[in-house]
Write a structure and sequence with these properties.
alpha+beta, Immunoglobulin-like, C8orf32 fold, five-stranded antiparallel beta sheet, 29% strand, globular, disordered N terminus
Length: 340
């Protein structure tokens, strides 16, 4: 049975690699029709605003709808960039559509031990302990010390943290959406269980506790994107900073997801553990990076968001449930470019 499972792992990895050999490009469209009551007076809406980076190019971004105002804002503390739209007079069917074209490159990375393991000054913020990533908590310090014992250098220590998260957490399918992203809650109240926001936040917190710059990444992930509805594709992963290389992508949450889906133990999941270390060639879209504690323009009450990935909305000051796309309501679709 173990040989069969190993063969299946290799089979699925080959499928993923061959399917994504030519990274797809296409158009993503987010359509939001906020749920309102007959007497609703106003609507406020906030949507993560995707930007180009080394692995993705965003173009032809358009915003359409029957809203009254719209603008692009940047939260100074978290650096999150987002679209803020309002309906001062609520129509019978409020609607806003954000659409953009995406081209991307393979995110797989070749990494090596750096010649100089010192970090540039701008990495200081990614070492900080925050209310959302409590790296200075005694528990996190203890685990980080234990996980990296006997390891030296950023690369070996980051890998040790990654392995610890894979070994000591699990994917809990009951968790709503991508989870709350609270590392202390994940490790204690949830006994290591959670989804991608939970497990990624554990990695980032422990990496910082070990003195390694790290951050959360929020976006979309699909193995083999096809035309149609991709509303369920929201996903979180993590990055750590490696001198001489830059930011390195890791996704311990997806290792645990594959273990759940394919009924694998840790030894049988070794192929997935390697696949999700240092980038992969899956279809991913980055919406935000390090978008923790975001204070949204115009929100009342203006409580900072733990993390900002899903659309956010308030109808007459009452927040809609971002985890429930149908109740909110929003829909995300993908249309691949036609091959020439």
């Amino acid at each position: 049975m173990r040989y069969l499972k190993t063969a299946l792992i290799l089979f699925f990895l080959c499928i993923a690699t061959s399917a994504m050999a030519a990274a797809p490009s296409g158009t993503l469209t987010l359509t939001i029709t906020p749920k309102i009551k007959n007497d609703s007076q106003n609507i406020k809406l906030w949507i993560p605003y995707p930007l180009s980076d080394a692995s993705q190019t965003i173009s032809t971004l358009t915003v359409q709808g029957n809203h009254d105002t719209a603008g692009i804002y940047r939260d100074p503390a978290s650096t999150a960039v987002y679209l803020y739209a309002t309906w001062e007079t609520v129509p019978e069917k409020p609607v806003l559509t954000l659409s953009f074209h995406l081209t991307q490159t393979d995110r797989s990375q070749t990494i090596h031990e750096p010649s100089d393991d010192r970090y540039p000054m701008e990495m200081a913020r990614y070492l900080e302990s925050t209310p959302y990533l409590p790296a200075d908590a005694m528990e996190m310090q203890r685990i980080a010390t234990q996980a990296t014992q006997g390891k030296s250098g950023t690369l070996a220590r980051a890998r040790a943290i990654y392995d610890w998260v894979v070994n000591n957490t699990f994917r809990d399918p009951v968790v709503k959406g991508c989870g709350l992203g609270d590392p202390s809650r994940t490790l204690n109240a949830c006994k290591g269980g959670g989804k991608c926001a939970d497990l990624s936040s554990v990695f980032v917190t422990l990496a910082r506790a070990a003195g390694i710059p790290a951050r959360d990444v929020y976006g979309l992930r699909l193995s083999t994107p096809a035309d149609g509805d991709i509303t369920s594709a929201f996903h979180c992963w993590a990055e750590f900073y490696l001198p001489d290389t830059g930011w390195v992508m890791v996704d311990p949450a997806d290792v645990r997801k594959m273990m759940l889906v394919h009924h694998l133990d840790l030894e049988e999941a070794q192929g997935w553990r390697e696949f999700f270390w240092a980038g992969d060639d899956l279809f991913r879209v980055v919406l935000e990076k390090e978008s923790r504690g975001v204070v949204l323009q115009g929100a009342h009450p203006n409580t900072p968001l733990n993390y900002f990935m899903y659309p956010q909305a308030q109808v007459d000051g009452k927040a809609l449930d971002a985890f429930d796309a149908k109740a909110f309501a929003y829909r995300l679709t993908f249309t691949a470019d036609k091959k020439q």
